[in-house]
Amino acid sequence: MRIVQDIKIKGEQFLNVEPFKKLKNPLLLVFGNRYMLEEDDIYKEIKKIVPSGHIVFGSTSGEILEDAVYNDSVVVTAIEFERSSFIIKCSNVYDYNNNDALLGEKLMEEFPTKDLKHVFVVSEGSIVNGSALINGFERKKGASAGLSGGLCGDDARFERTLASYNENPKEGEIIAIGFYGEALEITSANYGGWTPFGPERIITKSNNNVLYELDGKPALDLYKNYLGEKAKDLPESALLYPLSVKTKVDEEPIVRTILNINHHDNSMVLAGDVPEGSKVQLMMSSVDDIANGANKAAKLAMENRKTKPELSLLVSCIGRKLVMDQRTEEEIEEVKSVVGKDSFICGFYSYGEMAPFSENKTCRLHNQTMTLTLFSE
Q1: Residue 165's closest CA among 123, 112, 109?
Q2: I need a surface site. Which of 84, 209, 300, 337 has the fewest CB within 10 A?
């Protein structure tokens, strides 16, 4: 596995393009600020650097490269596999009338199952129901292959997200990358570091990822009461106080953040499903808790690995970044301390993270977690 990385800061050029020219048919992961990915010539610019590259774009709420976090940049990681291969498929939510589960099923059906090790998803993050999308993938994926990924971001603006494969980034795109080969070792894990507080309430009215009522009362009204003065900054301020959602007594709770609000019916749109009957609590965290959570996520991803990771692909949540503020890079440093200094690190801050819990291989949608997908060949 050969890996080359570069970065373009807003108003500048890429720093070192020569090493890219030596790669043959690499996978290019291009994560960047949404405004920079809207530039008309962004695809042509990357394609010129690596004409044979397979280019996957995703907009972010912050770009991760090595042990640094950037806000107004485009970062590129090119991977040339020596004994393995990959296949890339894409589709658009608007072609499925927002039936995200069906989209996941159809996209997964396009991948040959023989020797499939893992599928990594770069998904639009503004309108997709990430839970339904993952459920569709899981129905067709098979137990032997892993699944992870993330929902694209748009800083804390929540206006629109962009993604694409081998074309200019656009809205609504879902890109799936299938990795093949016996030589590959791919592991993934996630961990949060958030603590529930306040009374536990019951979801009494919801529809997929739209939350209407808690304990028979308008959900948004209750949430505003908790936020107080911070309610005027919704939905951004909600990132600091996500919801712990527990659907079954013996299941791990899922963390859900609010993507949007509807003042007309006092509802909240969340990144994934919030089933009726689930128990809900508010959550909060600190800088140290989030950094420790990143360390825990890295250790879970490293458990039982036979080889050291050559590439560490990170997807962390915008809410974690807002809490960490000037200390955001500390969680990346925690990851690096575990995966090793020789592992290339790339990734992005997202509106949702896809990974299994440590005790099983079934992928779930998470919020407010650090998610790692580790590669070696």
Answers
A1: 123
A2: 337
